[in-house]
Amino acid sequence: MHFNFYLLRGLRLLLFPFSFVMALVVMLRNKLYDWNFFKTTSFNLPLICVGNVSVGGTGKSPMTEMLIGWLQEDFQLATLSRGYKRKTKGYLLAGEGTTALEIGDEPMQFHQKFPHVAVAVGEERIVAVPQLLQDRPDTDVIILDDAFQHRAISAGLNILLTDYSNPYWYDWFLPSGDLRDERRSVQRAQIIVVTKCPPDMGPTEKQKIIQRIKLLAHQQVFFTCLQYATPYHILTAETKSLPAEAAVLLVCGIANPVPLKKHLEKHVAEYHQLSYSDHHIFSIDDLREMEKRFTQLEHNEKLLLTTEKDAVRLLKFGEELKRLPLYVQPVQHQVLFGEADLFKKAVVDFVLHFGKTQTHA
């Protein structure tokens, strides 16, 4: 949910006093780390943290995938996530036969798309990193997914994402806003990425945002928009472009589906949506409802569409999915203003300058 949704704004403003409690707790926790009362641990290999200071979808998963794409040819990579809403506890390394219920939907997405990358989950990352290195001692780089608030570990490169339509500098603490960390924590990031920008964003607006961020000497800022690729069938991987005359039933359980809905508004005749909560675990009743709603669509050409994150939670239905034209909509970040190479260079240089010959902690 986003603070900009007018129907929710009134209710969330009523919760404003509780935000002060959240703010005090977060600020005290950060101070205890700043004063070294709480200890932070570093490891002798490059750790790249992808995170944000707010809840909701800022594009962390496609950012992690973009980093993997940049680094996978030259380095042995691993990703480490919490594994939100999984049915297991503790550290777990993905392997053959692993499911989304065991490691969570986003790690499962990484595991399916990049089978050569070690994908691990663990609530306590300071414990999980040594276990991961023991399992995969040849690891050169670990990408920490959604770990910016996990200050028990000190990452060498922090990439912080903020949504163009809901930037951290206009936000406030939960539950009246979306912030889960204080704004000054952004100072710990080396790279700030403004995500989900308009593709035609101009240089004047870019400069206004840069001035608003107030970059420090050690920081760089980049801007990205979402780029939707050709959908593929959930079982066969057969690709199919969205027909302009089609009716689409969107099955969606992600934090911020607004950009995808805008994409569909531009590219198909009509679309309908079956909405679920973020990380929703689909049941057989949900599948029956999808079939029912899809059958009710009165259109010559129609198809079901879902996100990659939802797809890994739907795969458990196996053979039953064959009855449905269920396609998956991939999405990726596109770096604006011709700065993709500059962004990539910042990431690669961090890894190279860290030194691959150092001993793992």
Q: Would you kindly provide a written description of the structure presented here, covering whatever features stand out?
A:
- InterPro entries: LpxK, P-loop_NTPase.
- This is Tetraacyldisaccharide 4'-kinase.
- Belongs to the LpxK family.
- It holds the Pfam family LpxK.
- With 361 residues, this protein is an alpha/beta fold.
- It folds into two domains: 178 residues, 3-Layer(aba) Sandwich (Rossmann fold); 100 residues, Rossmann fold, CATH 3.40.50.
- 33% of the residues lie in helices and 20% in strands.
- The protein contains eleven helices and 14 strands.
- The protein has a nine-stranded mixed beta sheet, sandwiched between helices.
- Strand 7, helix 7 and strand 8 form a beta-alpha-beta unit.
- The N terminus and C terminus are likely disordered.
Detail the topology: elements first, then pairings:
Blueprint: H1 6-14, H2 16-34, E1 47-51, H3 60-71, E2 77-81, E3 92-93, H4 100-103, H5 105-113, E4 118-121, H6 125-135, E5 141-145, E6 157-163, E7 191-195, H7 203-213, E8 220-228, E9 232-233, E10 247-252, H8 258-267, E11 270-275, H9 284-296, E12 302-307, H10 308-314, E13 326-329, E14 331-335, H11 340-354
Parallel strand pairs: 1-5, 1-6, 2-4, 2-5, 6-7, 7-8, 10-11, 10-12, 12-13
Antiparallel strand pairs: 3-4, 8-14, 9-13
Helix pairs in contact: 5-10
Catalytic activity: a lipid A disaccharide + ATP = a lipid IVA + ADP + H(+)
Pathway: Glycolipid biosynthesis; lipid IV(A) biosynthesis; lipid IV(A) from (3R)-3-hydroxytetradecanoyl-[acyl-carrier-protein] and UDP-N-acetyl-alpha-D-glucosamine: step 6/6
Family: Belongs to the LpxK family.
